[in-house]
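Translate structure to sequence.
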């Protein structure tokens, strides 16, 4: 059995902000370690590339388009994303827990990516209840 077949994609959202009392040199060192860790895992096939997010945002809804935020509190800001390829949510979380930025205040939310298309007849987080 090919182990890659049993692996799934998990979205990683970088949340939060750096500790207010962290020295810039410590943050810069954590960022350098992060990119080494990240690039090593992309090369190994454990991660799929992601990106930092810009500071501008737009909110699109049936009410229209809003481009003047803020759309969330500072603690809820998403700073970036990437994908972890793992056998389970737990395995993805354990890999994300190795992120060198965690000791300096950043948090990471890991969510499974669903391959199945949405349907109003299958209750999910984005469809109406039955």
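Result:
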């Amino acid at each position: 059995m090919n182990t890659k077949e049993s692996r799934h994609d998990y979205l990683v959202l970088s949340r939060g902000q750096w500790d207010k009392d962290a020295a810039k040199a410590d943050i810069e060192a954590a960022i350098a370690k992060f990119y080494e860790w990240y690039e090593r895992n992309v090369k190994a096939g454990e991660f799929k590339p992601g990106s930092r997010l810009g500071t501008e945002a737009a909110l699109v809804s049936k009410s229209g388009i809003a481009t003047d935020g803020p759309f969330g509190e500072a603690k809820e800001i998403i700073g970036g994303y990437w994908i972890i390829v793992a056998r389970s949510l737990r395995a993805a979380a354990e890999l994300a827990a190795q992120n060198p930025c965690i000791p300096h205040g950043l948090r990471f939310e890991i969510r499974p990516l669903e391959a199945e298309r949405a349907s109003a007849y299958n209750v999910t987080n984005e469809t109406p209840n039955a």
